[in-house]
Amino acid sequence: RAGVSRDEASDLEARISSLVALSEVPSGTRMEIVLGRRPNRTVPRPLESLEFRARFDMRMEVARVDGGLAVTPVSIAVDETPLRIRGRVGQSLYQSARAAGAPPRAIQEYLRALGTQLSVAGDVRGDDSFDLIIEHRRAETGEVEIGQLLYAGLVQSNREVQLLKWSAGGPAQWFEASGVGRQTGEMMMPVNGRQTSPFGYRVHPILGYRRLHTGIDFGAPYGAPIRAAASGTIDFAGRNRGYGNFVRINHGSGMQTAYGHMSRIAVGHGARVAQGEVIGYVGSTGMSTGPHLHYELMRNGQRINPRSVTFIQQAQLSGEELRRFRSTLARLRDVRPGAAMARREERGERRERSAANVRRERTRG
Q: What is the DSSP string of 92-107?
């Protein structure tokens, strides 16, 4: 459309595509085209030169040399030091992160990552500290490219959340520093065990007659930790008749979960708990024939089948995959806040000194 002949355009397309995939050249890329004189109006002008940014790290230069076109790829140095942004949560986590320089998309991804471990609205306090590490590329020509969030951290008075985005042979997900990740679902399995009795009518093993079993039972070793299926507030913690040692959590929006037959309760009434936090230990208190967890789910006061809500599936890294994961996590956590900015300023100073030297040489000449 700029006036280059069809034959020259086809020739250039073939030659440039041998150096860089044309699909990598973003739509809207600006091209500088210089056309030469033509012998008459019936023929297209010959192409004299063409320049454009083929990739973030490459510029393409085309020039007419000895009657032909020479295509030259020119590498552009790129600093890929990730950008680390830290700060205090204050009155608003989002606003504080924005003020610290984090882009909106990275903050939104950060909030979703934290949401896999805790309730952002209820568990994050003003004195907590946020920690984001973001993909960051800066070309020597000055352009900046911001990528995905790589690391999401939160430092609290009683815990530190460290999450690394990792792909273990499937879609990338957030893994804890220990190598435990989460995939799909709404609620966490409350105990590591197998289901021994489903929700529904059954003959009670002690009373001996048929009645509704209002939850599901998980067989697990005595003393195994029981974890909150979702974040919420403890609205009952104590002895509750046939349930024995019993904990109930209010998750808001009419949802509650309950945990019975504990050997020991690890939380108190009114306490705020995060998803996955230990709230007690498997036992056989109350009307029980052996160590297990009786788990119930209530919606608006009505007991419903806990299997109607999808449990979160967990992935656990191991072996060489875990070693690479920990190595990557350690390398990212060694990045200094503002390191990318410091390197950028250092390169800018070098360019300014180089330009000043050139000006002095020209002045002397």
A: -HHHHHHHTT--HHHH
Region 267-287: mean pLDDT is: 93
Tokens read off for 143: 């352009």
Percent of the chain with pLDDT over 90: 60
Helix (H, G, I), strand (E, B) or coil at 106: helix
Q: How far apart are CA 126 and CA 175, in angstroms?
A: 25
Cβ neighbours of residue 58 closer than 8 Å, sequence gap 6 or more: 20, 73, 74, 75, 76
Stated pTM of the model: 0.57
Write down the pLDDT at residue 342: 41
Rounded to whole angstroms, the Cα distance separating 108 from 104 reads 6
Q: List beta partners, residue 315.
A: 181
Higher pLDDT, 118 or 75: 75
Q: What is the mean pLDDT of residues 90-94?
A: 94
What does residue 239 show for φ and ψ, rounded to 5 degrees?
-80, 135
Phi and psi dihedrals of 341, rounded to 5?
-65, -40
Beta-carbon contacts of residue 15 (< 8 Å; ≥ 6 apart): 69, 71
- What contacts 57, CB < 8 A, 6 or more positions away? 75, 76, 77, 78, 139
Determine what percent of the chain falls in helix, strand and coil, rounding each to the nearest 5: 25, 40, 35
Q: How do residues 316-341 score in pLDDT, each as one tens digit? A: 888 999 999 999 999 999 999 874 44
Q: Is the pLDDT of residue 344 over 50?
A: no
The Cβ of residue 83 has, within 10 Å, a number of other Cβ atoms equal to: 25
How many CB atoms lie under 10 A from the CB of residue 319? 7
Within 10 A of 164 (CB to CB), how many other CB atoms are there? 24
Query: Residue length, the chain?
Result: 365
Write out the DSSP string of 327-344.
HHHHHHHTSPTTHHHHHH
Closest to 259 measured CA to CA, from 246, 268, 271, 272 = 246
Query: Strand pairing of 173-176 and 311-312?
Result: unpaired
For the stretch 185-221, pLDDT in tens is 678 889 988 889 889 887 777 777 788 899 999 999 9
Tokens, residue 99: 């003020």
Alpha carbons 68 and 83: distance in angstroms, whole number: 45
